[in-house]
Amino acid sequence: MELSRSVISAPLPQPTLRPAPAPRLGRRLPFGAFSPPQPLSNVREHGCCISRALRPRQDWVEGWVRSNDTLVRSVPILVGGASLVAVLLNRAVSGIAAVADASSSQSRADILTLALSVTDILAGLVWLSIRPKSISPVVPRGIECKRVGPGVSNSALHELLWAWDSLTTATCCKSLVAVYGGNCVLQIGVAAGSPEDGNALTVDAQKFIQGSLYKSAMESKKQSYLANLALYPGRSELPFLPANTQALILQPIGDKGIAVVGGDTIRGFTSIDQAWIAMIADKLDATLSKSFNS
């Protein structure tokens, strides 16, 4: 037995569409207000204003100074030299005696001008001799490796690999070592080569835990950022990292471990990177604690 259902359809009244008003420049919506999308005609009509508002503001003075760095550093020398020549010409053309007379106001003014000119010339010479050192990434000298410690579950390993992929994509990280529960649970990236067999040097977790870097980081329970690793004598406690590692972050993972993040650029980790690495460490702590407790 088949049942049939009849549906009576009637045309529904169409709502009246009102054209959206054109956006008013200089007006700000209150906090929390939602602005509906504008029709394509309005966007095209006012496209120049919208694109101008979204375009980042560029400081043309700063750009010109950067592109003409040598010329800008030479400006004090040019100004000082021109002032010095002008004073000497004025002294010669005006008919004033070449000998400085302390009682003459012109002589006193010329002496002050000469002193300022010499100061400008010396300042220009200092500017030309002292230049900021350009910082560029280096190629880590080592061997690519990927070692997973015993007792790491599949979910924890997936979490560790996700953290590694995220760090290498968004930061200058080139090496990552995670020590948790007294064992090295992950060593990935570029590692120092062993002088014996040429393979990647294995992390001695127990020796690393006894070092001052590990103890200071775990006692403070705060992230330790070594922006220029070459200036710190404690780098001898990290033989498993490439010799030319430029920057280092020691991030505690809860109360049982620490993450060693090595970078290829001096001061390459920004404040946002440091805060993000701290959040990743909290996530790893929750995952690794479940993995080792289960």
Automatic annotation (TrEMBL):
Region of interest (Disordered), residue spans: 1-22
A Pfam family recorded for this sequence: CCB2_CCB4
Composition-biased stretches (Pro residues): 12-22
Entry-linked PANTHER family: PROTEIN COFACTOR ASSEMBLY OF COMPLEX C SUBUNIT B CCB4, CHLOROPLASTIC, PTHR34943
Protein name as catalogued: Protein COFACTOR ASSEMBLY OF COMPLEX C SUBUNIT B CCB4, chloroplastic
